[in-house]
Amino acid sequence: MSAVNPSADNAPAPTLAPAPPAPAPSFSQAQPLQGAARLWGTVALSAATFMNVLDSSIANVSLPAIAGDLGVSPNQGTWVVTSFGVANAIAVPLTGWLSQRFGQVRLFTASVLLFVIASWLCGLAPNMSTLIAMRALQGFVAGPMMPLAQTLLLSSYPPAMAGLAMALWAMTTLVAPVMGPLLGGWITDNMHWGWIFYINIPVGVLAAFITWTIYKKRETTTQKLPIDTMGLTLLILSVAALQIMLDRGKELDWFHSSEIITLGLVALIGGAFFIAWELTDKHPVVDLRLLKQRNFAVGSICLAIAYSLFIGNLVLLPLWLQQFMGYTSTQAGMLLAPVGLFAILLSPIVGKNVQKTDPRMLATFAFVMFALVLLMRSHFNTQADFFTIMIPTVVQGVAVAFFFIPLSSITLGGIPPTQMASASGLSNFMRIVGGAFGTSITITLWQDRAAVHHAQLVESVNLGSQATTSALSGLDAMGLNSAQSLATLNRLVDQQAFMLAANDIFMGSAAIFLCLIPSIWFAKRVRMVPQASPAAPGGDGAH
Questions:
Q1: Disulfide check for 543: which of 10, 235, 237, 338 has CB 3.0–4.6 Å away?
Q2: Are 542 and 311 a contacting pair, CB within 8 Å?
């Protein structure tokens, strides 16, 4: 379950986090599809979903290669993840309005085709600035894809088979994060990294063609509704400013830079005006009044914080492995892929029994498992072998399976049907933004802690140290001159410093997961309000 999506970020949110069902007139009046039409409709919608989720995880292991090819640092390469996530988060709340304005089938088909075009432009990007802009475009147009794929799929099956339809669709979102790191690693090592985006083209074109052919006669009615232009503008301004500040803060020395100060003020003032506006507008783009409901507030905040930790550490691990442990992109992908194995096996069981068990207990178990996984990683050293590093990744699949479904139940439990679309939209917005922010904060803290450890380690590297003298003598015997020997020692110190810094991040993240456990118990145990359309897996692109 790699991020990025996020999306992933663009994470994909990996499994069953809710995405906003489009509130446009539904397909309830249309008869379910039959035979080959239903089969091909399911294949097309699942393929589009697979493409979306895959793209949020496939880039994670490719970040060092992309950064090196475009002449930026690997840490700056994380902007490829965060730009997708932020743009996707902004687009998600607009899905309902867009579907009512243009129709669900037209919007979904256009979203898939625009995603294909954005993917093609990502692969052609000649520099990092262009790639970031195209990834932002890709994340924005991907916003409606996940919720509308679920809506269209549910219209294809009779109510009695809705569970089967969602199970088939959910499996797509679980398999994609397994395939993403493996496929991304292989492409990066054997082809140009642009092919991680080009592979979307045939899949997307075929999915759009089949979807339009089958569903065009089942289009929903459209109507012109007001849109909260001011709220949307303030949302884009404040979120974008805060994300850019987090991404550029380290290289500009934070608030010693006038640019960072300006971005911080824009984010603060824009955010304050956004909150005030949304609480008073009749048609808010994000209905913040939902946070007055205790379960929704507790569930959404815990989901956003936990997801930010999950995505941040998922981006950090392949960066550390490739930069300082000598792993190739393919090897890093092989280490990340197993996170989906237990999720695939256990998620259907958790989904079937979530209403029979207190979801707070299941969420608590997920947080404990996440903390255990991160605690295991916090004891890594530079001698850790492939299987030692893989074991926590496999165990993490258990945590993922018990994470999204119970938290979705807590968050949306008790929400009336009339508010479900808004609640799902706000919850997903908070989760996706949390993933993007978590990535930036994690990488920044990793660099800062590495600088601290580097300074502490070099105190012992001097000519008065027997270990230093012995190491220099050994390097000299290998034919290295003094400059080369010192550079080699510095590289070894860097390797240790960044390993210790990664351990600090893992340990700190484990502590935060444990701190979330009491928070989840502030929610009341409630049952999900029965809906015509179950909550859909959410897509961040990070996903």
A1: 10
A2: yes
